[in-house]
TrEMBL record:
It is an enzyme of class 3 (hydrolase). It comes from the Eukaryota. This is Ubiquitin carboxyl-terminal hydrolase. Residues 313-811 form the USP domain. The active site is at residues 322, 773. Belongs to the peptidase C19 family. GO terms for biological process: cell communication; protein deubiquitination; proteolysis; signaling. The lineage of its organism: Eukaryota, Viridiplantae, Streptophyta, Embryophyta, Tracheophyta. Zn(2+) binds at residues 185, 188, 205, 218. Residues 159-271 form the UBP-type domain. Signal peptide: none annotated. Keywords: Hydrolase, Metal-binding, Protease, Repeat, Thiol protease, Ubl conjugation pathway, Zinc, Zinc-finger. Pfam families: UBA (PF00627), UCH (PF00443), zf-UBP (PF02148), zf-UBP_var (PF17807).
Length: 813
């Protein structure tokens, strides 16, 4: 049979070519199944019907699955440029825009061809001989902004300053003349970080930082005393007045003063003769972000040897995505996740079971990320990937892989993670595990998130001598840090004396002089298990409020134990503070003593409810003071009550930590159940039938509806959040009292010995979880490795005492 010429072949396939509409998402920068791009060796193939992109190793799979033969092939080849191209210093806190960070990106030439599968028949583009439909389709693809770009905006800029509403009618008083130099705080000896109040000309020092550095708060205290609203930072005034740092105290922000020249002239200041000597607030933020050498956590100054190969692939920072990068590097260092998404699942297998659009499928994107991180395909020196000369091992760097599609999928159900703002690594970790659990609800035995899950049991001892046991599931053990257990108290006392002396003299303490508390991890674990008083506990035995004792323990030990150090606390006035503390963490821990054994011989359970039918629970009643303080901060009243109850009214700080960790729980909006027999919920049979029609067992449906107050939507969420219910549904007696230590919560959880080995650390640099930088250190192949976004290297001094999250693996007996 005579072969059809390429143009005739293309014309015969025109029915499988579609001109994209404005609402279509077009992928042209990254393969949906791998991290291949137009710059990869084989380029990228864009399906001209679905507008999904595939690498050279995967485009044939797309043809087999969809039958779409016509693809636009995009190939980019690096241009040769001068090696001494100068780097521009950034003037804006931005990436990818004029004045922002210059990534010194090389330039590329781009070529296009039409490729018809399965024989890879190729026609050049552009060409006037191509059918008009093909030309229109290709033009639309090339002109469109890629879906990857829409979902991942690379530019991140500081908020634009606004004009102050106090500037236009600012009243100025007094006859102060400010000299051009030699400034000093009027209330202390500080000679830097000085602010000129634009109303009365007072020169005072700025705010004190959380770590004791900075000023002594004299400028802000002056505002509180006088109400004079605007101040300008001395040392930032120069001929370019727009760069001056003006702060509005009532607006609590840096602002623009359009009349600044006039306001300065009142105090005899000729701004044209001044030179800039201090950083503005925005410049300090910019300086922090351009200088990622943040001391020990990033092992700054250390000669870190780059590492390449399988399991040593970096992740490109998409803009404040280090919280995700650090967390996912540790997650994919566990056997459970490696096995599920790499060893037991090929890319082709995941693609074949994925929906029509694999970019929105969590299983597909997790498999893609796993193969990207673990295969070693992308863990090469950047020079080897682009074909240029190989540098020395010391200077070699890898590009890393950009987890754009994974971030889009995992963040789709979370309004915060879908932004470009920095996030809390702990909150992301919990959200991630929740999404993985939901995606594996149909086959819970395959769910890798279960390897982190365990059961916590609270034992409440009433003053009547009777007890109650309450269980809950969790993925992390959140630990308070008992500073009074510091092992270096004498050194701390001596340092605090020196610090107080220096501050009285207006001097700062140098970093080398700072002494931080050292608290053993054992003390944090002991603090978790220590008895705790519960005031105003309602005793169903005494039928009155009393004081009870609560102790906590674990009824199961997970394969992987995650310890969260509560370094962020609330000070008076609800001011967040990060504890500047070291935690002495051993390589091996044993938590066997923390196992809870449930109801013991001779113990008597508290009655479930009072005989008169009162619905008071054996759980503590939410403390009104705690609920009120949380509600005043804007939290939902019901959520606040649950937080107080689940932390046994231990205090506002504990309740807030619980609330922040459980805000995304599917049952967070379910009404509080007190478990009274006389108040048992009557379940509508039609609701059960509805859930059964969804494919759930009747026993499961009934349990879920009881747990969610009869709400079908919440019951569905409950089922997805409690996959272990399947295993226990057939044996559970639904009439059993809730205090009889039910086994449902423990069913199917991993369990074993209590000895664990440290294998991962996620550390945080910065004053808040919502800013700063996250880095991971992981024990791989017998050595510690630092994962700092796309930088991967042999760790010389892992910061074991500075972690925010610690990951332990159970040691097999």
């Amino acid at each position: 049979m005579e072969e059809m010429n390429p143009m005739e072949l293309l014309r015969s396939k025109l029915s499988r070519v579609r001109i994209p509409e404005p609402t279509n998402r077009i992928y042209k920068q990254e393969c949906c199944l791998s991290f291949d791009s137009p710059r990869s060796e084989g380029g990228l193939f864009v399906d001209m019907n679905t507008f999904l992109a595939f690498g050279k190793d995967h485009v044939a799979w797309n043809y087999e699955k969809t039958g779409n033969p016509v693809h636009l092939h995009i190939k980019q080849t690096k241009k040769l440029v001068s090696e001494d191209r100068p780097l521009k210093k950034p003037a804006l806190l931005a990436i990818g825009i004029d004045g922002g960070f210059d990534n010194n990106e090389p330039e590329y030439e781009e070529t296009h061809n039409i490729v018809i599968l399965p024989s890879y028949v190729t026609l050049p583009f552009p060409s006037v001989e191509l059918p008009e439909k093909v030309r229109l389709t290709v033009d639309a693809i090339l002109m469109a902004e890629g879906a990857e770009r829409k979902e991942q905006v690379a530019a991140w800029t500081a908020d634009k300053k606004q004009k102050s509403r106090y500037a236009m009618e600012l009243q100025q008083i007094g006859n102060v003349v400010v000299p051009p130099s030699g400034w000093k705080c009027a209330k202390c000896d500080k000679t830097d970080n000085l602010w000129l109040n634009l109303t009365d000309g007072m020169i005072l020092c700025g705010r004190k930082n959380w770590d004791g550095t900075g000023g002594n708060n004299h400028a802000v205290e002056h505002y509180k005393e006088t109400g004079y609203p605007l101040a300008v930072k001395l040392g930032t005034i120069a001929s370019d007045l727009e760069a001056a740092d003006v702060f509005s105290y009532p607006e609590d922000d840096s602002v623009i003063d359009p009349n600044l020249a006039e306001h300065l002239a009142y105090f005899g200041i000729d701004f044209s003769s001044l030179q800039k000597t201090e950083m503005t607030t925005a410049e300090r933020e910019l300086d922090q972000n351009t200088n990622f050498d943040w001391n020990r956590i990033q092992e700054s100054g250390q000669d870190v040897e780059p590492i390449f190969g399988p399991g040593y692939t970096g992740l490109v920072n998409l803009g404040n995505s280090c919280y995700m990068a650090a967390t996912m590097q540790v997650v994919f260092s566990t056997q459970s996740f490696c096995r599920q998404y790499y060893m037991n699942q090929s890319l082709k297998m995941a693609f074949e079971t994925a929906p029509a659009d694999p970019t929105v499928d969590l299983n597909m994107q997790l498999t893609k990320l796993a193969h990207g991180l673990l295969s070693g395909k992308y863990s090469l020196p950047a020079s080897e990937r682009d074909g240029t000369a190989t540098p020395s091992v010391k200077d070699a760097k890898q590009e890393g892989i950009p987890p754009r599609m994974f971030k889009a999928v995992i963040a789709a159900s979370h309004p915060e993670f879908s932004t470009m703002r920095q996030q809390d690594a702990l909150e992301f970790f919990l959200h991630f595990l929740d999404q993985v659990e939901r995606s594996n609800a149909a086959k819970p035995e395959l769910d890798p998130s279960r390897s982190f899950k365990f059961s916590v049991e609270d034992r409440i001892l009433c003053s009547s001598g009777k007890v109650a046991y309450n269980k809950r599931l969790d993925y992390i053990l959140s630990l308070n840090i008992p500073l009074h257990e510091a092992t270096n108290k004498q050194e701390l006392e001596a340092f605090n004396k020196i610090k107080a002396e220096k501050m009285s003299e207006g001097k700062d303490v140098s970093n080398d002089e700072i002494v931080r508390p050292r608290v053993p991890l054992e003390a944090c674990l002991a603090n978790f298990a220590a008895p705790e008083e519960i005031p105003d506990f309602y005793s169903s035995s005494l039928k009155a409020k009393t004081t009870a004792l609560k102790t906590a323990g674990l009824t199961s030990f997970p394969d992987y134990l995650v310890l969260h150090m509560r370094k962020f606390v609330m000070e008076a006035g609800w001011v967040p503070k990060k504890l500047d503390v070291y935690i002495d963490v051993p390589d091996i821990i044993d938590i066997s003593h923390m196992r809870s054994k449930g109801l013991q011989p001779g113990e008597e359970l508290l009655p479930e409810a009072a005989p008169e039918g009162e619905v008071e629970s054996s759980q503590p009643v939410a403390d009104d003071a705690i609920v009120g303080q949380l509600a005043s901060m804007g939290f939902n009243q019901l959520h606040c009550q649950k937080a107080a109850i689940n932390t046994s009214n231990a205090g506002v700080e504990d309740a807030m930590n619980w609330l922040l960790s459980h805000m995304n729980d599917p049952d967070i909006d379910a009404p509080i159940s007190h478990g009274a027999k006389g108040a048992e919920l009557s379940i509508d049979q039609s609701a059960i039938d509805t859930l059964v029609s969804f494919g759930f067992q009747e026993e499961i449906a009934r349990m879920a509806l009881k747990a969610s107050g009869g709400d079908i939507e919440k019951a569905t969420d409950w089922i997805f959040n409690n996959p272990n219910a399947y295993a226990a549904a057939s044996t559970m007696d639904t009439d059993t009292a809730s205090n009889s230590t039910p086994t449902l919560v423990d069913t199917g959880l991993p369990d074993g010995g209590g000895r664990y080995r440290l294998f991962g650390i996620v550390s945080h640099i910065g004053t808040s979880t919502q800013c700063g930088h996250y880095v991971a250190h992981i024990l791989k192949d017998g050595r510690w490795v630092i994962f700092n976004d796309n930088k991967v290297g042999a760790s010389i001094d892992p910061p074991k005492d500075m972690g925010y999250l610690y990951f332990f693996e159970r040691i097999s007996s």
